[in-house]
Amino acid sequence: MLRGATRIKPELDTGTGQASWDGARATNVLGKEYAIDLGDGYQAIYRPYSVNDPATTEYSLRGRLEVIAPAGEGHGPELVARLGRLNLANRTMTRDEGEYTYLTANVSAQSLDKRAEVVAAHATGQHLEEMVRQEIFHERAHEAVGMTGPQLADFAKNIQLEAHTRALPAKVQVLRDAVAKATGFADGDALATSPGYNPAPRRSAGWLTWTRFDVGNSAGKLNSALNGRSLVHSTSFTGLKAMLATGVLASTERRTTMGTHANVGSSEAADKLTGGASSVFLRVLPASSLGSGLKLVWDQPERLLARADYYGANADTYGVVNPFKAGQYAKSTRDPFKIAKFANPSNEVMFADGIDLLGPEGPSRILCSNTSQRDEVRTMLQAKDITAIAGKPIEEVVTA
Amino acid sequence: MSQLSPDQLWTTLNELLAGRGEDVTEDLPGAELVVTEGGHEVFRAALARHARRDRDEPAVIWIRPLMAPAGFQDGLPSFDLSIVRRRALHVASAQAADGGLHLELVTGQHARIQPARGSQFAVLQDFDTWMTTLTLEQRIEVDALDSD
After folding, report:
1. Residue A265 has what pLDDT?
2. CB-CB neighbours of B18 under 10 Å
3. ipTM of the shown complex
4. What kind and span of H or E run contains B9?
5. Helix (H, G, I), strand (E, B) or coil at A212
6. pTM
7. What phi and psi, each to the nearest 5 degrees, are found at residue A320?
8. Residue B61: beta bridge partners?
9. SS3 (DSSP) at A95
10. Rounded to an integer, what distance in angstroms lies between the CA atom of residue A145 and that of residue A135?
11. Which residue of A132, A148, A298, A389 has the smallest Cβ count within 10 Å?
12. Do A262 and B78 touch (CB under 8 A)?
């Protein structure tokens, strides 16, 4: 069923950091979505790119899939199983699938998507999958005899999924070779054995992130380029306490699903239309002159710049990250070496979804404005049994 | 049109934010920011009535464009500061013209700050109302323009 887009309206218990949701949905959302019944109280909601014009709908919602289980715990495995009804892979991610996603993330992070090798690899990959699909169809065509309509639909879905799974190892190899050639490696094997190549996703807050192999392979150089510079997020005390309640510096879009977003301001918010709502904003500043005020500081910016999902601009640019809107996008860069040289105080580096403050991506310092704020923050963390952030004791992290 | 010194720019900006020189009706006049690039308008929003000069870089002025209309809670307008977040104007050159300011930004974009009109003006009134619902401590936090 196609309907006007919606968002869930969860609530957050600020004491426990636990979000809950009673099924209510906000309807003041610009866009369209499909609501798909998956049976037994399971439901999927998808906002396709094709029916959501980026010029007039919320950019940060496009392409987002939401899968809802009945109320209560323990529905995870069944929820994943039902993804099959959407023609999505409904089994645990394999190493090949992880690597394909990793390569794709690196293609966008390193701006390789228009390189001839990569374009050709995508075409070859589709062709490979099509060939496998034909093969499986010929193997199984006789089974379709006498099937009813719904049985035939299931039969076709299974062939699609099977073809996707069987073709994947070959697709990975083709894409890996192409990415290797586009980045100056002899072949995919040479790339795969380079020290920075790590297709395993990292768990960050409630989602997965991938790293960039170009950053991993030039760690020493990047560290020197970033020497004396920090990534900084300035915040208010109210803002900091809200972040520590959930442990995440989260984008507006993420906070909406976590229940920490005030949900005020109509969804016609320009930020949502431009995609800014999908990211959190940090700035590159000299570590020696951070000024006063509450700040989260990353003294080793390379810990965050190893991620594959950021971009930055060396001055505030008005208008946009949505490439369909104005030329602004051209002013931004995904190159960590360019970001390391950002010198304007208004520079911005945007990370997708957010940053897990209590995990390995946690800040090196949380600078408070005074000792009473510092003590309150330390007490908050102790109450959550947190004694260290990214390996550093909280007494050294949280200072005034 | 003559070039403005940083101090002249600062004075004129504050006059525009306060609505000085505009006809005072029931609502207090104020300013809006319009940004163009290559002749195309890419951004338009009312400006909250506060601004701050950067401590290290005199060419940077922090402002708060109200890029989303208010939500309403208990019948009163309400704003999310992470959406109406602070932004920076990094000014390459400034001129006063047509009752407003014309700024060349270091990004190559052109910015105009002028009396707010229409829907921008309405958002500014809602923001003013919202500010009066905050505690003094919260207002100081919003005015300071030092958090993102």
Report:
1. 39
2. 14
3. 0.83
4. helix B6-18
5. coil
6. 0.82
7. 180, 155
8. B53, B89
9. helix
10. 18
11. A148
12. yes
Q: How would residue A320 be classed by pLDDT, with cut points 50, 70 and 90?
A: low
pLDDT above 70 as % of chain B: 98
DSSP code per residue over B55-98 = SS-TTEEEE-EE-SPPEEETTEEE--TTTS--EEEEEEEEEEET
B109 CB neighbours in chain A (<8 A) are 317-319
What is the token pair recorded at A305? 């710049």
Structure token digits, residue A189: 């094997």
> Residue A1: is its pLDDT beyond 50?
yes
Task: List beta partners, residue B44.
Answer: B34
Judge contact between B130 and B75, C-beta under 8 A. no
Q: Is the pLDDT of residue A186 over 90?
A: yes
Structure tokens that stand for A399 in this block: 């200072």
Conformational region of residue A375, where left means phi above 0, alpha means psi within -120 to 50, and beta covers everything else: alpha
Q: What's the confidence (pLDDT) of residue A399?
A: 94
Question: Does A238 sit within 8 Å of B38, measured CB to CB?
Answer: no
- CA–CA separation, A140 and A156 (whole Å): 10
DSSP labels, A277-306: GGEEEEEEEETT---SS-EEEES-THHHHT
Residue from the list B72, B83, B148 with its beta carbon closest to the beta carbon of A269 = B83
pLDDT at A146 over 50: yes
Nearest to A259 by CA among A274, A268, A248, A267: A248
* C-alpha count within 13 angstroms, C-beta hemisphere, residue B29: 14
Pairwise CB contact (< 8 Å): B146 & A293: yes
In terms of pLDDT, which residue wins out, A319 or A243?
A243
Average the pLDDT over each of A85-89, A349-353, B82-86 and give the range with the smallest value.
Answer: A85-89
B82 and A CB contact within 8 Å: yes
Q: Which two tokens stand for residue B24?
A: 């005072």
